[in-house]
Amino acid sequence: MSTSAVTRSSRLRVPGALRGNLIPLAILILLLVGLTVLAPSFLRVQNLLNVARQASIVGVISIGMTFVILSGGIDLSVGSTLAVAGVVSASMIVAGMPTPLILLVGIAIGAATGLANGIGVAILRIQPFIMTLAAMVLFRGVALRWTGGGPIQFRTGDSLFDFLGSGGIAAIPGPVMVFALVSIAGVIVLRYLTFGRYIYAIGGSQEAARLSGVPTSRTAIGAYVISGACAGLAGVMTTARLSSGDPLGGNLAELDAITAVVVGGTSLMGGSGGAVGTIAGALLLAVLSNAMNLIGIGPFDQMMVKGLVIIGAVLFAARATRRRLVERGVPPGGLRGVTAPASADSSGGSPSTKTGERESSHTSQAQEEIRR
Amino acid sequence: MSVRLEMRSISKHFLGVQALSDVDLTVDTGQILALVGENGAGKSTLIKVLSGAVQPDAGEILIDGSPVHIRIPHDAEPHGIATIYQELNLFPALSVTENLLFNRYPKRGRYAIDWRAARAEARRFLAQLGVHVDVDQAVGQLSVAQRQMLEIAKALHRETRILVLDEPTAVLGGADVENLIALVKSLRDRDVAVIFISHRLSEIFGFADHYAVLRDGRLTGAGFVADIDHDRLVSMMVGRDLGHLVKSARRPSGDVVLQVEGLTRHGVLSDINLTLHRGEVLGVAGLRGAGRTELARALFGADPIDGGRVTVKGRVMHAKSPNQAVRTGVGLVPEDRGSQGLFRALSTAENIPLVRLAATGAWRANPRADRRLAEAYVDRLRIRLPDVGAPVGTLSGGNQQKVVLAKWLEADVSVLILDEPTRGIDVGAKREIYEIVDELCERGVGVILISSELPEVLAMSDRILVMHQGRIAAEVDRDKATEEVLMRYAVGPGASVH
Question: Does domain A34-327 have CATH number 1.10.10?
């Protein structure tokens, strides 16, 4: 396969940042075109900006979530983290504190919750799902305790704080600009920083990463800190948008964020995907609900359609990926076992397995036994 | 005594490798056959043919005189064939009773399991075999030896007539080995035919009736154990043909790059001492389970050690993680490149710079420069691939291994440990990998080469260490080393009688 495939390198070269993200982008564009035909009002600038604004808070969380999912983990606590940062920033604005400080504290709160998650996962070896599920409950409790249960409502004349929620520069809403900034940062970190390369490495194979000298624990903790920080930022944005710190805010935000990441083409197994896809995924979901509003589909039906669209998008993406790999000579499922040891099947049935390889896998497993 | 199992002219060909050619094997009832051979000689393939995991290209299998067809592992049980591998097929969370009688529980009525009867049956059966374990205990809490005996018991409870044991003693020590062997010996009275694979030749002389030796997929000897001695057995095992290997002319310098003193990891490595010079290849030979991979992992900080000192270029290294080892300039090309050496979903261009990034602690990565870098390595190491942006998982084995080596070339380490670097790689790519090793030496890297292929160790190494049961059994000079010498040390001290 190696030599014959050389000729194929002349195929369309995709910019690195977009690789693997083409499908969600294509779906997004198709959806946009279809909508313009069905509901011409969709294309109005005001409506488009509205859609972008709706996408922005979940979008910010999704960018952080992308780091965690790429690293092979999951973060269910982002909604609760959003609430904690949201109610704390509401209290701070009521107390008359300056917006930059509030922003800083909100992000710091998120980073701290992320640090806790990261330590739980990477050092204490608690399963990511369980650790962040516990954190989800814990931090929701913290948010409710902070306000005593109800929301903290306020009025503020602070223009910077207002900018984060409903204001903007010229016609462009503030939250959209924040989302754009976070997105750019996310893309750069994942692509141009060593840390970003490490994220892909530990998500691809924890063991290979460790044996390549990658500081695996530090990298995993970093991913959760980023996810938390993004959720904290989203909390401040939510409070600014609603002029209220709601301890129940961000409920189910973790699901929206995970959906955006997965629809954006990032594998829940970790190791492949990227921030560009997530941006497309978040926008796609917002466009979808906006479109259904414009067409006049009721909220209950909208949920059903949304569920089906998620399944469709993921199936479509998985299909295309598999086809691409088969073209390159990888058997179906060849990459799926990325994290599993190559010789996990004890039946030893694979005809291509060489004798020597089998023998060694016996050894290493037996030695595992000894180690215990 | 009658012939229980007859395997006639078994041949099997895997992608470019003749794993078995024309192998005949006969085992009588109540007889224990010792099957020996080097790593990769074809023993595992042969027993996989018997257990249905591998389909032979030619040959037939007769049980009690009548031909049988074992197409899938599921077919083996009705024929009374049971194979016990080192990684045991037991359910660790379930009790001894549940494991022993799995799917064969005594019933009360149609659906309800009679647990009282089940436990009584388990107790009776195990006691009869002399296996003393608590039937209510979870299997995960048993020792490895107990689990092995339980698995044998399970096979016997299923009326097994042919029992294959794949290196059951490799992971056991002392009294456990004796208990296991006593159990195996008692199977003679039950008219079970036993095939016992072992690397510890001395054991075989203690209890086996017949022997069969495989080398390069061929039967090189078979007969009564009573008619043969340790040295003759060894000489039948060695002499594998791996194509022509040219001894490379290297001149290692006197500078020590790696010094290991008294390295110990309880139960795995004991008191390892070694010295590695600049530009030298130090070969490490030994049989599977001798502790070679464990030594590599311990030196690299991948496993914790219990004692000893590792000095790299005169500085004591306290590697508690591979990250620290990499920063100190020690590298490891792991045994299983698929799951440990590479990120299969990442591209060649993304794989190659990773170790350098980890070693230097650089903040920034530069995808464009990495691409050019990868293209340079592709030219230099003649890596054949469609595009440096393609996932590494899509490359062939030899090319994948070259990418792993490129990772370490790029990281500029001073000590590189290669664990089975040419396993499963075709001959052409092997030669290219040897050239890369020579190039590393020229650059002053000290290389530790762990390999099960003796001709490779002999051709590539300046000095050779032979490991046996977690110790260094011998250090052999390149001029004095022959396959027989190495194998003799690897199988351990000569025929001791049990």
Answer: no
Report yes or no: B167 at the A interface, CB cutoff 8 Å.
yes
Same domain flag for B348 and B273: yes
Tell me if B355 and A343 make a contact (CB, 8 A cut-off). Answer: no
CA B140 to CA B122: how far, in whole Å? 17
- Shortest distance between the Cα of B49 and any Cα of chain A, in A, equals 10
Give residue-wise pLDDT tens across range A115-174. 999 999 999 999 999 999 999 999 999 999 999 999 999 988 888 898 998 888 888 899
Contacts of B188 (CB under 8 A, 6+ apart): B30, B31, B32
CB contact under 8 A, B355 and A362: no
Q: Which amino acid is at B476?
A: V
Interface check B267 vs A, CB under 8 A: yes
Does residue B371 have a pLDDT over 50?
Answer: yes
Give the model's pLDDT for residue A340. Answer: 33
Half-sphere exposure of B466 toward its Cβ, with a 13 Å CA cutoff?
A: 24
**Can you tell me the ipTM of this complex?**
0.73
Interface of A with B in 245-274 (CB under 8 A): 271-272
**What residues in A contact B350, CB-CB < 8 Å?**
197, 200
Cβ neighbourhood burial of B320 (10 Å; 0-12, 13-18, 19+): exposed
Q: Is B358 on the interface with A (CB under 8 A)?
A: yes
Close Cβ partners of B238 (under 8 Å, ≥ 6 residues apart): B38, B215, B454, B483, B484, B486, B487
Q: In degrees, to the nearest 5, what angle opens at C-alpha B344 toward C-alphas A337 and B371?
A: 160
Print the SS3 string covering B267-281: CCEEEEEEEEECCCE
Cβ proximity of A367 and B265 under 8 Å = no
**Number of domain units in chain B:** 2
- Residue B19 contacts A, CB cutoff 8 Å: yes
Could you tell me the pLDDT band of residue A334, with boundaries at 50, 70 and 90? very low
Whether B168 contacts chain A with CB within 8 A? no
CA distance B453 to B433: 14
Of A9, A334, A362, the CB nearest to B86: A362
What residues does each domain of chain A span?
Answer: 34-327, 347-371
Give residue-wise pLDDT tens across range B109-153.
888 999 999 999 999 999 988 888 999 999 988 888 888 889 999
Q: Is A193 on the interface with B (CB under 8 A)?
A: yes
Whether B267 shows a pLDDT value over 60: the answer reads: yes
Q: Which domain holds residue B54?
A: 3-237
Q: Is B40 on the interface with A (CB under 8 A)?
A: yes
Q: What is the pLDDT of residue A139?
A: 97
Searching chain A, which residue's CA lies closest to the CA of residue B384?
A: A2
